[in-house]
Amino acid sequence: MTAPIHDHRTTAPIRVLLADDHTLVRRGVRLILDAEPDLTVVAEAGDGAEAVELARRGGIDLAVLDVAMPRATGLQAARELSRRLPDLRILILTMYDNEQYFFEALKAGAGGFVLKSAADRDLVEACRAVVRDEPFIYPGAERALVRSYLDRLRRGDGVPARPITEREEEILKLVAEGHTSKEIGELLFISVKTVERHRANLLQKLGMRDRLELTRYAIRAGLIDP
Hints:
The protein is 50% helix and 13% strand. Helix 7 crosses helix 9 and helix 7 crosses helix 10. This is Response regulator transcription factor.
């Protein structure tokens, strides 16, 4: 199916789901979007898991997802939404000017990437572009990203790979947030035994010994805020 084409002069507004764990940020972003006649925020979420749940209820054209959120990051939510709702358009909002996030966002199915510091300038245009099925990269990033990608290809590196699986990443995030194996099992609908196995695999793969080291890694990987 092709993406819905919105002409903001003639059609119904683009229905937006906004996900960010900071209420003040959500309020500010909502003011920007609701000021436009062709954009309307119809749902808000405080974490990635809630964003997925709300989007699956329907009535959403575009999900605007912050990268660093509790329970599930914006990138984790984007992966799941891309699989479950392929017609939903996704825009990643981040405070980090980080090339790795950009590549991960594209792999996760996002159509755009906007810095929070430039949201008042870029966000509206980005929303419209993504719904038209046109990729949006914040101004100034294109040249650096293309140069970086070409350098990688020259070295034979390709796009940076993620060292752990998506499920391991979900468990790593929850471990770093201080959840017990039992709580993680309940959140992810898997057994405690399975959680412990994934946890052991993570320690082995990453060459780490305990939760503290896993937490430091999760902070460096942008899965949780420091």
